[in-house]
Amino acid sequence: MHEIIIRKSEYTYPSLRQSIFEIMDSLGGEQIHRKSRVVIKPNLLAPASPDRAIVTHPLIVKAVVEYVLDRGAAPQISDSSAVGSFDRVLRESGIKEALSGFKVEYKEFKESSLVDVGEPFKKIEIATDALNADVLINLPKLKTHMQMVLTLGVKNLFGCIVGMKKPEWHFRTGVNREMFAQLLVKIYRALNPSITLIDGVLAMEGQGPGKRGEPRHLGVLLGSQNAAALDMTVCRMLGISPDTVLTNKFAVEQGLMTDDIIVNGELPRITDFKLPEVTPLVFGPQKFHGVLRRHLVQRPECDNSLCKLCGECWEYCPAKAITRSGKKIHFDYDKCIRCYCCIEVCPHGALSARESLAGKLTRKMLKL
Ligand code: SF4
Ligand code: SF4
Questions:
Q1: Average pLDDT of the chain?
Q2: Is the CB of residue 293 below 6 angstroms from any atom belonging to ligand 2?
Q3: Which residue CA neighbors atom 2 of ligand 2 most closely?
Q4: What pLDDT is attached to residue 363?
């Protein structure tokens, strides 16, 4: 049985703390003891204030830290942010301030160990601290994701791939979303977090997971020992098929969903949550894939009035498809693999994904 604990909540202490303590108790938090190495992995994508809904809320991190300290263990907060220094993300997210006075270690994931996850990826480098934790607590934010539709429990652990290894993996999986989803499930299985607790109090809808997304109040916390079951439950809550999030499909295929899901608490029904428009990346006859993708598939575009030429996008782009050209940036759409990482990391919300009219018409004709 995969138990999902659901609690209505707001970012108000001490009621939030009480809800989180209840959830942690129900999910086997008592296994944490004085000698446990406890690593807490929030979503710390980029420097952003809590009201932008980009990072896990500081009060959620605070309540989990308090829980771990109450059990006598020493908590470590870790991630490998895509944008900005780790210290800056901790400060701007409000986590440093919320945790002032608590005995907690902040440690960016920097070292990796090779893990054989089997075919087709074989050996993957994953953050050593996350692998060696006795208790890994996964704290995702409920957000939309331009490439994977939603980023939830399973996807959050991609942050345990250190630094520029992340865009490397985007490049290796290329335009194949299914392959990327399989990779995410393999990483999840290798890490096997003890508890996953999703921050769905202030979620993100629209063109997430970065600055183009829109905060959306849902007022809910969801926890489980099985992140895949949790992700499926979020899909149910949002009224979408679980297979819309491809990691769910591969979690089933890889044997992670052998039991029934039991929901403890009231699952809200949200009918108007705005998902990103995710178009297929490969369609039509194979020999035309290249040309169809170049001209018809949704592609990143820049609003030059917002672009500050900061360079985050071209530094991160796994395909090296972005260059600076005078006072503008230029995309090489032949090279672009449509991972939308550039949109995710742009600190100024200057990038968005657009589909051409020709693309829309073609998809309509092909009924995609
Ligand atoms: S598009 Fe965004 S990330 Fe890229 S240079 Fe402009 S402001 Fe920076
Ligand atoms: S241009 Fe953007 S969408 Fe294209 S490969 Fe680079 S980061 Fe990915």
A1: 93
A2: no
A3: 342
A4: 65
The predicted pLDDT at position 294 comes to: 66
Ligand that comes closest to the CA of residue 294: 2
Pick from 106-110, 180-184, 350-354: least confident: 350-354
Mind giving me the DSSP string for 165-181?
HHHHHHHHHTT-HHHHH
Answer whether 300 contacts ligand 2 (Cβ < 6 A): yes
Taking CA atoms only, the protein residue closest to ligand 1 atom 7 is 307
For residue 115, pLDDT over 60 is answered with yes
Which CATH number do you get for residue 361?
3.30.70.20
Minimal-distance CA residue to ligand 2 atom 5: 336
Whole-model pTM above 0.85?
yes
Note whether 247 and 354 are same-domain residues.
no
CATH number at residue 32: 3.40.50.11440
Distance CA 148, CA 172 (A): 16
Pick the residue whose CA is nearest to atom 6 on ligand 1.
307
pLDDT for residue 297 = 77
Q: How far is CA 73 from CA 63, 193, 202, in A?
A: 14, 17, 29
Domain that holds residue 342: 286-366
Total count of domains within the chain: 2
Same domain, 207 and 84: yes
135 and 44 in a common domain: yes
Model confidence band, residue 357 (pLDDT cutoffs 50, 70, 90): confident
In a domain, 280, yes or no: no
Same domain, 222 and 361: no
- Tell me if 271 is assigned to some domain: no
Q: Are 47 and 84 in contact, with CB atoms under 8 Å apart? A: yes
Nearest Cα neighbor of 228 from 300, 294, 316, 156 is: 156
How is residue 14 written in tokens?
Answer: 């001490």
User: Which atom of ligand 1 approaches the CA of 312 most closely?
Assistant: 3
Pairing mode, strands 37-42 and 135-139: parallel
Q: If you search the block for the tokens 């968005």, which residue do you land on?
A: 352
55 within ligand 1 shell (Cβ under 6 A): no
User: Is residue 107, in this structure, part of any structural domain at all?
Assistant: yes
